[in-house]
Amino acid sequence: MKKLRIRNIDQGAIMKLNKILKNAFLVTVACLVLSACATSKKSGQMQGDVYTGNDTVEYLASGVKDRVFFATNESVLTTAARETLRKQAAWLRKNSKITIVLEGHADERGTREYNLALGERRANAAKDYLMTYGISSDRISVLSYGKERPVDSGSNPLAWSKNRRSVTVKAN
Amino acid sequence: MKKIFILLLLWALPSKSLALIEVDITRGNLNPLPIAVSPLSIDNDSKKSFEKILKKKDIGSEISMVIENNLKISGLFNPLNKDAFLQAPDIANLKPRFEDWNLIKAQALITGKVKYMDDKLRVEFRLWDVLAGKEIMALAFTTVPNNWRRVGHIITDKVYERLTGEKGYFDTRIIYVAEEGPKTKRIKKLAIMDQDGANNKFLTLGNELVLTPRFNPTNQMITYLSYFRNLPRVYLLDIETGIQEVVGDFPGMTFAPRFSPDGKKIIMSFAKDGNSDIYTMDLENRIVEKITNHPSIDTSPSYSPNGKYICFNSDRSGYQQIYVMKSDGSNVKRISFGKGIYGTPVWSPRGDLIAFTKMHKGKFYIGVMRTDGSGERLLTENYYQEAPSWSPNGRVLIFYRETKSNDKGEGFSAKLWSIDLTGYNERLVDTLTDASDPSWSSLLTN
Q1: How crowded is the C-beta side of B333, counted as CA atoms within 13 Å?
Q2: Scanning B11, B71, B128, B269, which has the fewest C-beta atoms within 10 Å of its C-beta?
């Protein structure tokens, strides 16, 4: 909508200003994208140490990713994670009979007992977010696997980033 | 575990004979004591009887090999090559020719005799001070033949105690998690073995994930985490009967269990709504008590041996650190302040130290500190290792170590290792499969 309006404006000064701003904006975006590509190429598909790729991702429904990823030692939901969870919430609202298990996981670089707790904390971060989007806690159970069930068995930062996750699994 | 041993005879009390030999346990294995373990002598009739029962050609020499191996892995002794022994075992047991043993530089000598008596195995042994030229200990045991390895372990404990002044740790078992299969679908079973790796037995079938087994003080029960029916809960297992039961009725994951020193309570974490706190459950009256109450992760609790304090792991400061509190949950104090983060605190059976895992700059360390956090000492550094457990005399730690995988997940292994409190004598503990989460029993006989 916004883009359309800008294009329709047809008056000299404003248009010029807009054009300059827009170009500047595009240039910055391009720079950002390029630099992001550069770093993501180096470290695989990560932003900071949060996985942003789709290698291991499965889909609950078309366009509804089943998992979200976390930074090392963190259980804070990233912007991407919140977007994924909003889509899950919308899908769950449409399919009101479906119940889910949130499976929380940690990477292998931590002590086993702490990682069990960390996996539980991550799954609950996802649960809390789904609940704020109207999904009843009755439909959600939480299960932590700690570091016991990695999806990627490599010992490298990219593999660990794929393993720090909360996966939404249909329970019925 | 049945108490099978009868201390039959104690005919030469370790009198206040001023033995010249002494092993300094605090200094590491720089000068292990040269010791000769003569094969235990055995008469022909006994030999034949035991060969029939135990399928061992010469049980006397088998027992002496158990002793010799124990002494060697302790790092404090250097068992001498039997080929150099000049005196026959039966004669040496009567009266050693000390010049002969001196000649091969033995400072201590173990001799003994095995006999088949009323369907039982009777073993006597003597410990000799070669330099002083006299006997410093003599004991005899009678037991069922199947216990022959334990006789070897008990003899080692007696020798160790006589020469170091501290209790041994050889007549003990290790409970651990046996691992198989790829990392993404690892199969885990509870397993138990003697301290030296013999008599390995699997206690679960591998149908469900099991983690972190720990003995109770009498070594008859184990508490552990099982994912039975995909509900991670703390369980109890009776080793003799095989009966398992879930501990308490918690509406969420319970984990990180250990027994209290009197064996009456289980202390563990209970996770709910993203928050893990420490709870105890009394096994008799089933009363559950909440010990910590904090919105952070509180886990890995371990009692002091007198039961008055608990050390545990918490990230209330933002990162994993070690804390100590009174057993009612009061007086919480952080004790780890070094660089890096800390986990898996476990109180020494002697009460004076806490062993831990430390993570710093991508490396993992096993270390110890005093119970007030002072005197931190790192014993070993590696790519990945954690979860130390103390030998019952507080002199050795067993833990597990994992190797790095390549990008395809190849090259991964998990093994048990032990190291002396001195930081010396690091050793791989042999297991049939990959292994993790070791826990050391107390002495099976006292």
Answers
A1: 10
A2: B11
Test the B interface: residue of A55, A100, A113 with most B CBs within 10 Å: A113
Q: What is the pLDDT of residue A3?
A: 40
Tell me the pLDDT tens digit for each residue of B289-304. Answer: 999 999 999 999 999 9
| φ and ψ of A88, to 5 deg | -60, -40
Q: How many CB pairs under 8 A join A and B?
A: 105
Identity of the residue in B183, B212, B319 whose CB atom sits nearest the CB atom of A150? B183
- H-helix or E-strand spanning residue B37: strand B33-37
**Residues A81 and A158 grouped into a single domain:** yes
Q: Can you give the CATH number for the domain in which B35 is found?
A: 3.40.50.10070
**Residue in A with minimal Cα distance to B226:** A145
Query: For residue A138, what is the DSSP state?
Result: G
Asked if A114 lies within 8 A of B313 by C-beta distance, the reply is: yes
| Residues shown for chain B | 446
Judging contacts by C-beta atoms under 8 Å, the chain B residues touching residue A152 are: 184, 409
Containing structural domain, residue A32? 2-42
Q: CATH code at A75?
A: 3.30.1330.60
Helix (H) or strand (E) holding B213: strand B210-215
Query: Computed over its alpha carbons, how large is the radius of gyration of chain A?
Result: 20
In this predicted structure, the answer to whether residue A43 has a pLDDT above a threshold of 70 is no
